[in-house]
Amino acid sequence: MTGIEQATQLFHDAGLAFPVIPTELAAQLKELRPWLFSTRRNETSPYDLGDYVRRVQRTNVKDYVILCHDGHGVNSYAIHYYLVRGSLRLFLQLGWGGVHMDEKEDAAHIRDCFSMADRLVAASQKTGMFQAGERMLVVASDFGGSYFLPPGKTRRDLKAPKPRKAKDGTKDRPVAPERHRSVGSKEVLTEALGWLISRQEG
What we know:
Blueprint: H1 3-13, H2 23-26, E1 30-33, E2 36-38, H3 49-58, E3 64-72, E4 76-85, E5 88-95, H4 103-124, E6 136-141, E7 147-149, E8 163-165, E9 172-174, H5 185-201
Parallel strand pairs: 5-6
Antiparallel strand pairs: 1-2, 2-3, 3-4, 4-5, 6-7, 8-9
Helix pairs in contact: 4-5
């Protein structure tokens, strides 16, 4: 079996949806270890999402795809789908496989996110969508830090969280970043897809 066939079968047997991987990258996909498929050698664990994001922001990186299940402890496990292709840098880290996680709920969440990611990837590849040198970054993580950066934007351009009153009413405190999927992964994928659609229509 090819790498893409192995990965597809593995996800199917686990009751998980499978993302649409671009043909030229699917042909290069190889199993590096159980539950880790990639088109390149990975120097760090895919669980270290920040390292992968920093690398694509600091250097020119060749197109690649990583698909794996990785994590640590009893509940910090996720399905990772990282795709760098053309002007798109897409990083999904979707909770699945932890001791205290709900497998059916997680599987439905992964299916929804992969569906949106498929649409996002297709839209990003349309002719004329990006100018030479433009890059868009989408980071969707169930463990915090989900955000979308259109070409030319940095995290400093993102809106700061609104302040809220402390329980004792004495002073304002910044809103703590949410670390649950209800305010993260799906929302940022929806935002990125909406931006691409509006750019195409404009």
